[in-house]
Structures are given as C-alpha cells and as structure tokens.
Amino acid sequence: MDKRKCKETLLGGLIKNNPTFVLVLGTCPTIAMTTSLFQAFAMGVATTFVLIFSNLFVSLLRNLIPDKVRIPCYIVIISTFVIIVQMVMQKFMPDLYDTMKAFIALIVVNCIILARAESFASCNKPLYSMLDGVSIGLGFTGALCLIGIVRELLAGGAFAGMKIPGFPAMDSVGASAFGFIVFGCMMALFNFVLQKISEKKEKIRHSVLPLEAVTGSKEVAR
C-alpha cells in the first residue's frame, strides 16, 4: 500500500478535485437539493454511499468487464446501490424520501459517480477506489451543506429547519433563482482561495530554491 497515494486520494476530492466547486459535476442535485441543510446533507450521504460501493465493485470487476459494455455495467452496479438507498430511506425516513425520491433515483446517472467509475475505479485497486469514493463523497457533501446553509438562511429565513424570527423569506421562484447565484458565488470564492493558496506555495518554493542553491555551493567550496 502506497501511503502517499492513499493520502493524495483521500484529500483530493475535498479540495483539489472537489466535484462541485472545481470539477463542476452533479449540478442538478446541487441546485435542487440545497434548499435546506437537512436535504443537502441527506443527498450528500446517499451519494457518498453509492460512490464508495460502486467504486469498490467497479474496481473488483475491472478486469472482467468488457470495454464495449463497461458503461452499461457501471450503471447496473450503481443502480444496485441506489436501490439499497431507496429501500432504506423508504423504510426508516419515509417523509424525507417522499421529498427526495426523484433525485435519489437520478443518482444512477449522476455524472460524478459515472466519472469516478470510468476515470478512477476502473484503473485502480479496490482500496484506492474506496478512498476515492470517500473523498469525492465528502467533498460533494461538504459543498452541498455549505450551499444549503446559505440558501436556507438567506432565502428561507431559517437554519437547520428552525425559523429565525423576523428574517424575511423569498417565494419559491425567487429562492430557486437565488440558488444559482449562491452556487456561482461560492464556486468563484472557493477557486479564488485555492488560487491564492497555490500562488503562496509557489512563492515559498521559489524563495527556498535560491537558498538551497547558496547552501549547496558553500558546502562544495568547503
């Protein structure tokens, strides 16, 4: 097991390859399921579950699946775990399932899951594939929750389902349009911060290199 690869895979989906703010995948559930923090969290957890186990099984079967039918095979694997999620939610959280069932079913064709199955799980061992599913899933869940908090607060006048007295709430049309604005602004802010961090690291690296060169030259002279 390569510890460095495990670390890079586990951290990649959270920041560098965040599916929502960097890769801009899964925008349909991002807009539709972030009207409240609870819905955003539930969608993120459901997607993370499907990601982890679909990645695992795609990786385990990668040498057995013919190239010509790999996408249909991936969809069959993904749909199996989506059905499990549907059954669990319908049994234990029927009210939540009633509000989310259309978008839970659409997890089958979620481009995040298909993209990770095709680009990562089909080329890597099961452990790395599961770590990728955890990483991408957590990155997706975190992004949904952040957007959900802002939208529920500013558009719905509430936080985690609790109404804030005196806080104005938008109508349904205005709240939906506001979702696109929040998504765009948060994506821009996320990438701006990433760029600044990258530039700072680059400056530090360039400032260290001349120092190493000088130190090396002195050691040679000695």
How does this structure look, described?
It is built from 8 helices and 2 strands. The model has no long low-confidence stretch (mean pLDDT 86). It has one domain. A hairpin with a 2-residue loop joins strand 1 and strand 2 (162-163). It has 222 residues and is mostly helical. Strands 1-2 form a two-stranded antiparallel sheet. The longest helix has 50 residues, at 172-221.
What is the averaged pLDDT score? 86
Domains, number: 1
Percent of residues in beta strands: under 5%
Cα distance, first to last residue?
42 Å
- The structure class reads mainly alpha
How do you describe this structure in short?
With 222 residues, this protein is an all-alpha fold. The chain has helices at 3-12, 27-32, 37-60, 70-92, 94-105, 111-119, 126-154, 172-221; strands at residues 158-159, 162-163.
